[in-house]
Amino acid sequence: MARSMRCLVVLALLAAAVACANGGWAEDSVVVAVGSYCNKEGGTCTESHVYALDLNVTNGRLTEMSSVVAGINCTFVAASADGKAVYCPNEDNTGGGVHAFAVNAALSSDAAKKNNVVSFTPLGRPARSTGGTHPPHLSIDKSGRFVLIANWGSGSVSSLRIMPDGSMGPLASVVNVSGRPHSAYASNSNACVVVPNHDANEINVFKFDQATGRLTLKFTAPTEPNAQPRHAAFAIDKPIVYVVNEKTTSVSTWRLDDDACTSLTPVSHTSISTLRPTDNASEWFSAEIHMSGNGRWLWVSNRFICTNTSDAAHCNGSITTFSVHKDTGALTLQGHIDSGGHCPRVLATSPDDTWMLIGNGGIEKPMYTPTSQHIRNVQTRRISADTGLPSATAASMWTMGWDSVGSPGGVVAFNRPRAA
Fold first, then answer.
1. pTM tops 0.85
2. Cα–Cα distances in Å, from 356 out to 216, 274, 311?
3. Hey, what long-range contacts does 305-310 have (CB within 8 A, 24 or more apart)?
């Protein structure tokens, strides 16, 4: 019996060694999809890529596995609830489109390559039209049957059907609005769609037909003057919406009628700042907002207007952490960290909220050497279960090359599929 146990232990150790030799990617590790801008100084953008990275859930290490060509500026990324498909919009001023990709996991037959590689395979070509132009954002409704899109360029909001195989189906609805909508989200009940309308300084609320995908504009709620609402996040178990305001670097809290979609009421007439006391508000713009899976923490990324081109660290953005009151949804500032790079446009967390992923780098012209790792990277930070604060230093950093892809435009993390 003892000898049998020793044999089992030896076999387990040998299996672990083989896994390490093949890249050390456990089947329960996490896939990170990264969308990208393809802008180049002095050149013409013709294609971008969506990257598949492996996130080691033990140490936070990021490793690139594969990439797929995805047209012009396929930036913000979203994953289906089952992790079998990834979607991204083309931020194209001449006509927006949505790409769909199947998430594939297979053992590599090439001994020189990693084991259990994840790749993205196009589901249908070409990209499906969004019915508008320059869509910077998309999300998936709660049923998983529709993609919701904000068309920044044409000033419209649209929905596209997701087919049973995960590919994009026909356009279900397009509604024109005033201003420039920046993002679109289904509410917790899936009855409403909330759209932060950046240039109009208002929030558009739609009734959403969950059977047909039809959008009907119900009303608009004005924000604070010159707030420039950008993105939103929902409380987990309450009809509360948190909106990040780009220009005023703040978060406003709203209560939504999540059944009839007839009212959106500010919880407080004063938004809460996302900046540190020493920050000059005129030099900062807020970008992304993200709610933890357990509803305890809310994070916001802030971008700094860099003027000191000789000091890379001086140009770094910041990440702000708030705690969320379990009963009222009220926010309390927990603290700030340096983002570890310029212009943290996007952030996400691992499915278990253990790791934060920060996407540094935007479409703005680099303030210093384009090849600098401070410009275009995705970093991992361990999140404290007690305070919600990400660690001050990165556990791992994956860097984009300016000449090949530009910069991170979106990031999403999800549990990887099992290898066939």
1. yes
2. 35, 18, 25
3. 306/342, 306/367, 307/283, 309/367, 309/368, 310/368
